[in-house]
DNA sequence: AAAATACATCGTAATATTGCGATATAATAA
DNA sequence: TTATTATATCGCAATATTACGATGTATTTT
């Protein structure tokens, strides 16, 4: 045991959970906020910005890249990262749909 | 090592990450969707609904309760769970704010 | 009071995540 | 070609998560 039983759930449920997982670390939130703020893609700066080791920062970047929400392009000796607008929009819409107006004015029980 | 270095990040960043973490498992997404759908709070049903062991289901419920997004009330021999509308709204607003319209039409790099 | 029912919690095993130093890789600069 | 620079990956240790059986607890039935 220890591994998530993804087969018990719908693809949509697994997808939302995977998206949430990508956001489930403050360093990754900080990276995304930094990328949104700077718009242009900085990269080595993130190591200074976050205060985490280079290896750790690179690992978080990899996770965000695997999730699709950011993309990196080789720019000479360094790599330029930026938000993937298409996937960003997908995240936004999926979370919006999940939290969409529900009849929640009354507390049951 | 192994533990998240929360002190490196802002309270807001840690908060968003914590919220995302609560949603970062398909079983918890399934529980929330079920609660939203049924509105009225069912509970023992969740074990059948999810296909996970009773202990595991209870553990996921506990995490959602700790995150504040659901609440449980003792109802005779069983416990009635439901969405906490106030916290649900907070989640919704925080994610909305995070994903709010950003100038993302062009891909940099 | 004793049994039954519904959950919670404990203990434990398997696996995943976080973090970092060390090293590899790849591109530019000297 | 040989540094230098920037990033990625490897290997490892610490910790967290997921899952479940077993057991505890509290309420209702019998």
From TrEMBL, chains A, B:
SMART domains: HTH_ARSR. Pfam families: HTH_5. PROSITE patterns: HTH_ARSR_2 (PS50987). InterPro entries: ArsR-like_HTH, HTH_ArsR_DNA-bd_dom, HTH_MetalResp_TranReg, WH-like_DNA-bd_sf, WH_DNA-bd_sf. The keyword Isomerase does not apply. One of its GO terms (molecular function) is DNA-binding transcription factor activity. Keywords: DNA-binding, Transcription, Transcription regulation. Residues 8-106 form the HTH arsR-type domain. This is ArsR family transcriptional regulator. It comes from Chitinophaga polysaccharea.
């Amino acid at each position: 045991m220890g591994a998530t039983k993804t087969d018990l759930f719908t693809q949509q449920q697994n997808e939302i959970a995977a998206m949430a997982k990508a956001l489930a670390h403050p360093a990754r939130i900080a990276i995304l906020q930094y990328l949104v703020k700077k718009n242009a893609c900085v990269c080595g700066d993130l190591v200074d910005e976050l205060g985490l080791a280079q290896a750790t920062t690179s690992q978080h970047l990899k996770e965000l890249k695997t999730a699709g929400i950011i993309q990196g392009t080789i720019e000479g000796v360094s790599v330029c990262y930026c938000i993937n607008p298409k996937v960003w929009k997908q995240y936004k819409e999926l979370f919006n749909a999940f939290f969409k107006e529900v009849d929640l004015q009354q507390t049951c029980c």
